[in-house]
Amino acid sequence: MSPEVEPQRKIIHVDMDAFYASVEQRDDPALRGRPIAVGGARERGVVAAASYEARTFGVRSAMPSVTARRLCPDLTFVPPRFDVYKAVSGEIRSIFETYTDLVEPLSLDEAYLDVTEDRARMGSATAIAEAIRRRIKTETGLTASAGVSYNKFLAKLASDHNKPDGLCVVTPRQGPDFVAALPVSRFHGVGPVTAAKMALLGIATGADLRAQSLAMLKEHFGKSADYYFWAARGRDDRPVRAHRERKSIGAERTFFEDLRAEDDLVAALHPIAEKVWERAAQGGALGRTVTLKVKYADFRQVTRAQSPGGAVTSFDTLRAAGTGLLLGLCPVERGVRLLGLTLSGFDPLRGFAEEQQLGLAL
């Protein structure tokens, strides 16, 4: 008896279009059609999201607000409302779960779906993606782009291909040629530093990457070599993970003015620790390691970690551990512009798993 062959995966990657900015424009008609940025307008503010009108001026997420304002003098800054974005994300997640239980969110505004099992009897993954996009528009008033393919790598590439409000399907026959024609800078997992390194090696496109041997890629890119080697051939065997173990819980804060006094630093750490503990308590997580992050005015960054002994079972224990680490760095020679605190090393019996992120045609 021949072994049973698993059906080819059918993966959808859904990516909301300018999610935070689109929610703000949806809720405030006066912002529609205008360049807006979600984030802080202060000198040290950062753009969390930019509307498509702002993107035409070169405004991008993670850009300093002063740079964004220089690129687009008419830019309107809107303070973020993460509680609203989270609620809308929950509505979208409910739509996904109508079609599959295999949903792996990457953030509030994007997720992978494995729809290999045609639970809704739609006939194809493309039909499911179209139905999801229609429902998102009808039920939330927002638009989403989707990519449909036979693996996660290609589905994510495809979702970005016809943005905004677009759909792109990459079949197994099309996959290798689709990858070959793309700049490697478009590959998920190839950041600016890696793309620049590849450029120095003469690797500009997927075709260039495919021409390299695995040995050569390992020599220059180490553990990432296997991923690059197979991605360049349109291969990616990673499954959609409906449950992904969370390795840490953290919070941080950037200060408008640099902090130097020990009392000010200790006071500033308190609400950060409160936020970490609130998140840990909500998830039922018992971590063992507390890590402090300090970024100085000259952008130099240090981290210090401590395991108090056993699980951190109270806010006071967490705060005391973080404060002890902080005092160990005092007095500070330079001002401190950012403090962060992270809880990790979760007890596998009490830690939490964060819900995230097979005969159907594409």
UniProtKB/TrEMBL annotation:
<dbReference type="Pfam" id="PF00817">
    <property type="entry name" value="IMS"/>
</dbReference>
<keyword id="KW-0548">Nucleotidyltransferase</keyword>
<feature type="binding site">
    <location>
        <position position="109"/>
    </location>
    <ligand>
        <name>Mg(2+)</name>
    </ligand>
</feature>
<keyword id="KW-0234">DNA repair</keyword>
<dbReference type="GO" id="GO:0006281">
    <property type="term" value="P:DNA repair"/>
</dbReference>
<keyword id="KW-0515">Mutator protein</keyword>
<keyword id="KW-0963">Cytoplasm</keyword>
<keyword id="KW-0239">DNA-directed DNA polymerase</keyword>
<feature type="site" description="Substrate discrimination">
    <location>
        <position position="20"/>
    </location>
</feature>
<feature type="active site">
    <location>
        <position position="110"/>
    </location>
</feature>
<protein>
    <recommendedName>
        <fullName>DNA polymerase IV</fullName>
        <ecNumber>2.7.7.7</ecNumber>
    </recommendedName>
</protein>
<dbReference type="InterPro" id="IPR022880">
    <property type="entry name" value="DNApol_IV"/>
</dbReference>
<dbReference type="GO" id="GO:0003684">
    <property type="term" value="F:damaged DNA binding"/>
</dbReference>
<dbReference type="GO" id="GO:0042276">
    <property type="term" value="P:error-prone translesion synthesis"/>
</dbReference>
<dbReference type="Pfam" id="PF11799">
    <property type="entry name" value="IMS_C"/>
</dbReference>
<dbReference type="InterPro" id="IPR017961">
    <property type="entry name" value="DNA_pol_Y-fam_little_finger"/>
</dbReference>
<dbReference type="InterPro" id="IPR024728">
    <property type="entry name" value="PolY_HhH_motif"/>
</dbReference>
<dbReference type="GO" id="GO:0009432">
    <property type="term" value="P:SOS response"/>
</dbReference>
<keyword id="KW-0227">DNA damage</keyword>
<keyword id="KW-0808">Transferase</keyword>
<dbReference type="GO" id="GO:0006261">
    <property type="term" value="P:DNA-templated DNA replication"/>
</dbReference>
<dbReference type="GO" id="GO:0005829">
    <property type="term" value="C:cytosol"/>
</dbReference>
<dbReference type="GO" id="GO:0000287">
    <property type="term" value="F:magnesium ion binding"/>
</dbReference>
<dbReference type="InterPro" id="IPR043502">
    <property type="entry name" value="DNA/RNA_pol_sf"/>
</dbReference>
<keyword id="KW-0460">Magnesium</keyword>
<dbReference type="GO" id="GO:0003887">
    <property type="term" value="F:DNA-directed DNA polymerase activity"/>
</dbReference>
<feature type="domain" description="UmuC">
    <location>
        <begin position="11"/>
        <end position="191"/>
    </location>
</feature>
<keyword id="KW-0235">DNA replication</keyword>
<dbReference type="Pfam" id="PF11798">
    <property type="entry name" value="IMS_HHH"/>
</dbReference>
<dbReference type="InterPro" id="IPR050116">
    <property type="entry name" value="DNA_polymerase-Y"/>
</dbReference>
<keyword id="KW-0238">DNA-binding</keyword>
<feature type="binding site">
    <location>
        <position position="15"/>
    </location>
    <ligand>
        <name>Mg(2+)</name>
    </ligand>
</feature>
<comment type="similarity">
    <text>Belongs to the DNA polymerase type-Y family.</text>
</comment>
<keyword id="KW-0479">Metal-binding</keyword>
<comment type="subunit">
    <text>Monomer.</text>
</comment>
<dbReference type="InterPro" id="IPR001126">
    <property type="entry name" value="UmuC"/>
</dbReference>
<dbReference type="InterPro" id="IPR036775">
    <property type="entry name" value="DNA_pol_Y-fam_lit_finger_sf"/>
</dbReference>
<dbReference type="InterPro" id="IPR043128">
    <property type="entry name" value="Rev_trsase/Diguanyl_cyclase"/>
</dbReference>
<comment type="function">
    <text>Poorly processive, error-prone DNA polymerase involved in untargeted mutagenesis. Copies undamaged DNA at stalled replication forks, which arise in vivo from mismatched or misaligned primer ends. These misaligned primers can be extended by PolIV. Exhibits no 3'-5' exonuclease (proofreading) activity. May be involved in translesional synthesis, in conjunction with the beta clamp from PolIII.</text>
</comment>
